[in-house]
Amino acid sequence: MGEEKRVIYLDNAATTRTAPEVVEAMVPYFSEFYGNPSSVYEFSQKSKEAITHAREIIANSLGAKTEEIYFTAGGSESDNWALKAAAEAYKAKGNHIITTKIEHHAVLHTGAWLEKQGYEVTYLDVDENGTVKLEELKRAIRPTTILISIMFANNEIGTIQPIKEIGETARAHGILFHTDAVQAFGQLPIQVDELNIDLLSSSAHKLNGPKGIGFLYIRKGVKIRSFIHGGAQERKRRAGTENVPGIVGYGAAVERAVRTMKERTQKEQALRDYLIDRVLREVPYTRLNGHRTNRLPNNANFSFQFIEGESLLIMLDMDGICGSSGSACTSGSLDPSHVLLAIGLPHEIAHGSLRLTLGEETTKEELDEVVESIKKIVKKLRDMSPLYEDYMRRQ
Amino acid sequence: MYSDKVMDHFQNPRNVGEIEDASGVGTVGNAKCGDIMRIYLDIDEEQVIRDVKFKTFGCGAAVATSSMATELVKGKTIYEALQVTNKAVMEALDGLPPVKVHCSLLAEEAIHAALWDYAEKHGIKIEGLEKPKSDIHEGEEEESEEY
Questions:
Q1: What percentage of chain A has pLDDT greater than the value 90?
Q2: Which residues of A are identified as catalytic?
Q3: How far apart are the first and last CA of chain B?
Q4: Residues of B with CB under 8 A from a CB of A
Q5: Residue of B57, B144, B146 with shortest CB distance to A308
Q6: Which one of the listed residues B22, B37, B72, B103 is annotated catalytic?
Q7: pLDDT beyond 90 at B89
Q8: Pick from A286, A311, A386: which is nearest to B60 by CB?
Q9: For B31, which residue in chain A has the nearest alpha carbon?
């Protein structure tokens, strides 16, 4: 057996490492306190209490009430539930939903499905930084608008949306406001009342929690139908025996994320800026995608002209570096990322994108290695690129 | 996702580069879809491909198929080169994932485009060679914006 290859993990927007203390908190709920929380005997109360405790931690972190937190299997389920159930519950009022062109597919594909069911969906444009234009949002509102769904921060380019202003606009018009906060929750402070958020989706594995557990925040008073029918779990709105270890892990992860947020995000942001500055300075014909400052503390997204993203990712992988790309080749379709096209990038530049998302364990030394690796690989790929050859000939 | 052969040709691509005053040059694909291949051929009086070089903008499979295609036509006559199909390129690479099969087609087309250019320059007709569909003449592709 050879030595294990060192890995520089810069794909924390895809998923994060479950923190050891989170795993530790979960372990007793597999084999020790395995009782079904719905059972009546004393033994199962441990499971029930653990769920209540996790729900309290999460509700407190958002300034919400415990009965407003509904556990789900993750971000995609929460997004599906929020859109489908709100559309159904408010169809007497109208059939119009507003969202954006840069949402996660869990929202975009649900929107497309709702259109087939007879709903009308407006997909707002964003500016070159990926920010929603508030004026355009206001113009899109109709008397039949029942829901506005806009993500808190973008998963690809990291841009943070003007959530407070969007929430105010929604509230002023009596429209429900849902935000997909899968990338933002745990990285940015979120208070649902201050921001007028009615529905919020989140997923544990983005903040050092386990995979397969998420929640949907549903403001009290919002009419929303059951998503999974069956038992009385989650106030009869989401049936099924609770994922007790997952919920416990989620609670532990949120407790930890809140406790470490300030220090962690300050450190990540400083490293992120270091990475961005070095790459833009040292790699020619490169641009940063997303807002320069108003972005997630751990997100950097570049486009390297004349090269293609999948090639870049494979070569980075050979150097032990994990990143991701909006290139079509990594998605299995011919079109590059819808987010990069929405901010106005031409196709060939969108194909050459690289997203690096830092984690709490990322070090400056790792980023130095990554910059050197990027410089070497981009040069190698440009040396074999006909686009670069043509460009240099024209110079 | 890729075979060892594909990874080898991607990591160590054969025949990367340009040929000055090439006998024929073919560029195919389009940047919109994320693949562009350019093949340079040096063909002697006996119609034998003495040298071949390529440049490719594209994914791992695009680079590997270009590299393998150049290996398969090197030293061949133009008629033998015409018989190098995308299937032959794929087989030589021990297969490609289904979504990457188009890369091998592009490699075949790039060879054909370079042969077409050679035939045009020399005023000859190569039996069985059709004008490639996605041929782009040099410098014709859209000017890419600079950042």
A1: 93
A2: 329
A3: 33
A4: 10-11, 13, 16, 18, 27, 31-38, 54-63, 99, 138-139, 141-142, 144-147
A5: B57
A6: B103
A7: yes
A8: A311
A9: A348
Shortest CA distance to A297 belongs to which of A263, A329, A322? A263
Mean pLDDT over B7-31 rounds to 95
User: Mean of the pLDDT values across residues B88-106?
Assistant: 92
Query: Which of the four pLDDT bands, split at 50, 70 and 90, describes residue A2?
Result: low
pLDDT tens digits along A155-203: 999 999 999 999 999 999 999 999 999 999 999 999 999 999 999 999 9
Q: What is the DSSP-derived secondary structure letter of residue A242?
A: -
CB contact under 8 A, A390 and B13: no
Give the C-alpha separation, A112 to A99, whole Å. 11
Which positions in chain B touch A385 (Cβ < 8 Å)? Answer: 55-57
> Contact at 8 Å (CB) between A179 and A163?
yes
Q: Which residues contact B140 (CB under 8 A, 6 or more apart)?
A: none
Instruction: State whether A389 and B18 contact (CB < 8 Å).
Output: yes
Q: How many CB pairs under 8 A join A and B?
A: 91
pLDDT at B140 over 90: no
Return the SS3 of A9: strand
CA triplet A178, A69, A147: central angle to 5 degrees? 15
Give residues with Cβ within 8 angstroms of A358, minimum separation 6: A10, A12, A268, A271, A272, A275, A298, A299, A300
Q: Is B59 a catalytic residue?
A: no
Q: Are A289 and A157 in contact (CB under 8 A)?
A: yes
CA dist., res. B30 & res. A386, Å (int): 11
Query: How far apart are alpha carbons A133 and A6 in whole angstroms?
Result: 43
pTM of the model: 0.93
Q: Which amino acid is it at A298?
A: N
Residue B77 has a CB neighbour count (10 Å cut-off) of 15
| pLDDT score of A312 more than 60 | yes
Please state the ipTM of this predicted complex. Answer: 0.89
For B145, which residue in chain A has the nearest alpha carbon?
A346
